[in-house]
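Running co-folding for 2-acetamido-2-deoxy-beta-D-glucopyranose.
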Amino acid sequence: MNSLFILNNINFLAQVIAALEITKVRVPSSYSLSRDEGDTKPLILGCDYDIDDEKSKGFVLKWKHNDLQFYQWIPSRNPVVFSAFKGHIDESYSESSDRLHKHSVLKFINPMANYTGNYTCQVATYEEVKSSTAHLQIIVPETDFSLGFQRETNGSTVVFCNVGEIYPLPDVSLRIDDQKVSDAVAFEQVQDYTGYYNVSVQYILPDPNQNLQLQCDVTIPATDYSLHTSMPYQGKWPHSDEKNETNLLKTIAKLGFLHL
Ligand SMILES: *[C@@H]1O[C@H](CO)[C@@H](O)[C@H](O)[C@H]1NC(C)=O
Ligand SMILES: *[C@@H]1O[C@H](CO)[C@@H](O)[C@H](O)[C@H]1NC(C)=O
Ligand SMILES: *[C@@H]1O[C@H](CO)[C@@H](O)[C@H](O)[C@H]1NC(C)=O
Ligand SMILES: *[C@@H]1O[C@H](CO)[C@@H](O)[C@H](O)[C@H]1NC(C)=O
Ligand SMILES: *[C@@H]1O[C@H](CO)[C@@H](O)[C@H](O)[C@H]1NC(C)=O
């Protein structure tokens, strides 16, 4: 094998790489749906690429959602949207007037929770095919987020944190005096039609008489979404009632003993 052959090969590769390269697939890691109409920020997915105009014969740009193609654009034609996304993409949206970039960007109309998934931008010419993928997580914000406690009649105090109607399933954790509670019990429910989650995390205080700082943290894995709230907890102070009760019991016991 002579070195000239290798050199020629490297040259050939370098030219190929320069002709078409996806530099960035602009997919946010998460997008929060708004519960109030009109307060929505747009969901835009972009595909940035460098392309050599002279080697752009046969140019086709495709977008796929979990390997299912839903968008195709050929320069000088209008983009075509199909399958589940038909009617859900603003086909007139454009961020560039360049012949080979005009319709590479997607602007969604009224995104839905099931838009979550892997998005692949694929750009092809007669000579090359390049693609790049990124994951989008759609978040449905909670309708309820509450931290509190309940004193049971048996003397136990249960601390709870509830998160209502959120998607996807969040991590909910309790902190007491800034220490994460590792043995709290979590209850999860899935709503029938929407698939949204209700999560309740509960914990019985080992010593309900102590003053404490309660905190609840909610996160959605692999996204920036987080919620925090905290409140002080006042132990049963002063414990005069209980002491009196105890004293009374002791007195009864003593009396009983005396009667025997
Ligand atoms: C998305 O891509 C990740 C990483 O490649 C993979 O683990 C996951 O199964 C994909 N999700 C779907 C819905 O295809
Ligand atoms: C999302 O769900 C709606 C119905 O609720 C369905 O019409 C649509 O095809 C789904 N979209 C995707 C991308 O799965
Ligand atoms: C008190 O009642 C609560 C709720 O019914 C229960 O979870 C807890 O275990 C009880 N505590 C004791 C000490 O029995
Ligand atoms: C879920 O939480 C919401 C809001 O707190 C509440 O209205 C709804 O009744 C809960 N659903 C279930 C099944 O508990
Ligand atoms: C507790 O008992 C003492 C003496 O029996 C009484 O003076 C006091 O008022 C009681 N405290 C309460 C809170 O009932």
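Result summary
Helices lie at 3-19, 240-259.
Residues 256-260 have pLDDT under 50 and may be disordered.
Job closed.
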